[in-house]
Q: What sequence folds into this?
DNA sequence: GTTAGCACTCCTCTTTATTGAGTGCTAATA
DNA sequence: TATTAGCACTCAATAAAGAGGAGTGCTAAC
């Protein structure tokens, strides 16, 4: 059987209506509220066909039809009309000076959740190979040394080291030079035992400190490599009865709190299978890799903050989410983040 | 009417039983499972008295009794037997090197949630007046300057500043001396316009940079002053039917996500009204200042990490929470955090 | 190919028992 | 005077039965 123009129109009408109401859609509704001018009986025949083809299904014998995963998929792939959503607050917020990546990401998640009324998550941008850019030791007081470690992409980590011996300013200067000349530009894999022992030798009596600093560098890079994720609006799931029952809600909220699974989900998108052109991907129902979201749809978008720093934004809602709006909003935010980076760069 | 020994025993039995089962407790149950050797009829008379006195109440005419808020209060104040809870994982986790306060607090919240099966929250320790301890500018590359700001209590903040002019190492050294000599040891209120303009004058052509650094300092101190809160185990509320219905759960989860109200709640405890001796406080039902928790009990404990750095831990659960266990666990953790600080200090 | 008409299905909501745990009260007992 | 046995009564919870209605599939006519 073929999906002709009329069937498409009916399918679209069923899905649109179901997205709005969340109730099964009957033939009479379609007959009345479309410009097809067909009686409910005709619609019924067509709907029976659509059901046979797998695009819609009946919850029970005498109920209207609801879209199947296949139906949603067809809608998203072929019939969606992206709404170009203004994200007003977004603009205002982003203009503020945001030195801290963390604050920015939290805000994006928050605004997005308020805007869409779904649950949102966002992963911090990452480069694949983190290189060391800069190290600085300084004396905080007699017993404490501060090590500041800057990684490519201006990620900064701090570490307080306790020292026994009193260090002169000159010694610290020397250590700084030693550390920077030897380590700058290296990734974690490139800092090998050879380099380390050579440096310790050169440091002489202060070899121990060099060792500690190197440990701190390793830890800093590693910490940067595991994914930081911020979420918002998890309690929006209670807005949708099909997700709000105890078991489902509990599982979902747990997933959002644990964050580990979210990481895998977001990274799958960043890796970039499918939808490479736009960086936006839609998972419907069983398509999502995360089991607790099998009754949800997930829309993810990759964003780039220059330098190949890629992160991912995700929106989780019911299968009957407003795909048009969500995709539109995400695209707006992609653009805004891109602009933000450029602006910051030229500041 | 007086609360004699027998009435106390019966009250205790009612509460203990209700804590376990969550079901109203009948007279026959009490008669059978206590060593009072009284018939259910006698118990019924006593229970009628206890109800009149306000310690217990009936959900409806022909049901058993459940504790009232007043009943719980009496139990907590007079009849509780703290269980000295071993928090094994806690011990293991804390021994690990924890340079980052954030990681430590997240772990405490997490372990506590797993241990008690309630929702937990913890606020980062705070000093009242944050003094500047140390500033350091360094050149990351031609266009960027890194400002590291250390606040009393070894809280470290970073800031990248963009600069137009090329700065020599010597200039930076001078600026560092200028900043440290003028600002160290000052609180945010003590850095006034006089100091600022004097410094700018001394900095000459680099006045703009000084201005930016001072802004960064102000921001850093302010950021430190607003309360950071970490939560865990929010989805534990689904374990307790009396909290798991949609509306209540949604409100609670929202409170935990927004965090602002939690801050007020935790700070009320830190302020220290009541229970000063132990730093542990129990809010039952309507007693909590947070409306969404009116069907919950909240137990909070203040902890100290030396230097007058005080923070608060909170546990939120149903009114029939295992007070004995919760209070015992919190006390253990107080001790452990105290020991942790001492150990770190002598490292 | 389209439509009107009708019997049929099955969910939903309401109404009506039925059950059972637990009470309060009274009268008998120690 | 305190305790207890006994009994009628209450009321939530559960099940069973019935009414209503939205929507379908099918058939026959247009």
A:
């Amino acid at each position: 059987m073929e999906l002709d123009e009329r069937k498409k129109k009916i399918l679209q009408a069923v899905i649109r209506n179901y997205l709005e109401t969340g109730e099964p859609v009957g033939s009479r509704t379609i007959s009345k509220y479309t410009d097809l001018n067909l009686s409910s009986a005709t619609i019924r025949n067509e709907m029976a066909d659509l059901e046979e083809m797998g695009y819609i299904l009946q919850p029970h014998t005498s109920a209207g039809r609801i879209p199947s995963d296949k139906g949603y998929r067809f809608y998203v792939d072929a019939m969606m009309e992206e709404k170009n959503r203004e994200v007003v607050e977004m603009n205002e917020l982003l203009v503020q000076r945001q030195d801290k990546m963390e604050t920015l990401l939290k805000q994006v998640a928050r605004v997005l959740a308020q805007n869409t009324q779904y649950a949102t998550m966002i992963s911090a941008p990452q480069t694949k190979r983190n290189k060391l850019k800069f190290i600085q030791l300084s004396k905080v007081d007699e017993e404490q040394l501060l090590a500041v470690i800057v990684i490519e992409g201006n990620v900064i980590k701090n570490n307080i080291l306790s020292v026994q011996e009193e260090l002169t300013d000159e010694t610290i200067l020397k250590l700084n030079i030693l550390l920077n000349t030897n380590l700058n530009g290296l990734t974690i894999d490139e800092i090998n035992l050879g380099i380390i022992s050579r440096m310790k030798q050169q440091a002489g009596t202060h070899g121990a400190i060099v060792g500690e600093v190197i440990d701190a560098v390793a830890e800093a890079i590693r910490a940067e490599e595991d994914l930081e994720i911020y979420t918002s609006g998890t309690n929006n799931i209670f807005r949708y009865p099909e997700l709000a029952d105890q078991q489902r809600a509990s599982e979902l909220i747990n997933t959002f709190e644990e964050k580990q699974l979210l990481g895998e989900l977001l990274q799958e998108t960043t890796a970039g299978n499918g939808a490479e052109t736009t960086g936006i991907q839609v998972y419907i129902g069983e398509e999502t890799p995360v089991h607790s979201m099998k009754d949800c749809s997930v829309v993810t978008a990759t964003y780039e903050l220059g330098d190949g720093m890629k992160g991912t934004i995700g929106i989780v809602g019911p299968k009957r989410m407003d795909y048009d709006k969500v995709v539109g909003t995400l695209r707006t935010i992609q653009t805004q983040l891109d602009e933000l980076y450029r602006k910051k760069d030229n500041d």
Residues 88-126+228-345 of chain A form a domain with the Beta-Lactamase fold (CATH 3.30.450.40). The interface with chain B takes residues 99, 133-134, 136, 138, 140-141, 144, 146, 148, 150, 154, 156, 158-160, 162, 232-235, 238, 244, 246, 249-250, 253-254, 257, 347 of chain A (CB under 8 Å). The longest strand of chain A covers residues 296-304. Chain A has a mean pLDDT of 87.
